[in-house]
């Protein structure tokens, strides 16, 4: 879009052409009168009487600013996606931390208490099995939370790497608003 705008702006400037010419006519069967020389100078200046390429220039300006708007919209969407992924990562990190510091130790304490109570004869085998089942389910939930955290971390890192490399590949864009 920037190149098309520059080309349209250049089309509004007349291309003045200046030239010189020399021709030599040697003696030949077609030219029996002798040799002759011819000199010439010319200048060409286009006159924009009916068409000054204003429409093309305005269209190129509109396309240029539409491309800038598209670029800014895409960058904003990418930033929003990165922010969303960062938020998901923080949520997964908090869940993992809570699982490791509070939920899993509490489930292990309950299971140890049930084992102790069963060995002393204070509870039945069903209570022991229920405590073991709850501990196993809590450990499975902890693995699931670790997996969710790993996925969130991988998605966030991938988005950061893709964004950084994509932004570095973008051409430098001039944002001047000058019109010819």
Number of helices: 3
Give the distance, in angstroms, between the N- and C-terminal Cα atoms: 16 Å
Major sheet attributes:
2 strands, antiparallel
Tell me the β content: 5-15%
Q: How big is the Rg?
A: 40 Å
Average pLDDT level:
84
Number of domains: 1
In the CATH hierarchy, what is the class? Mainly Alpha
**CATH homologous superfamily name?**
Outer membrane efflux proteins (OEP)
What is the helical fraction, as a range of percent?
Answer: 55-70%
Order of helices and strands: HEEHH
The parts where pLDDT drops under 50 for at least 5 residues are 173-180
Report the strand count.
Answer: 2
Which outline best applies? rod-shaped
Strand order in space, largest sheet: 1-2
Label the CATH architecture. Answer: Up-down Bundle
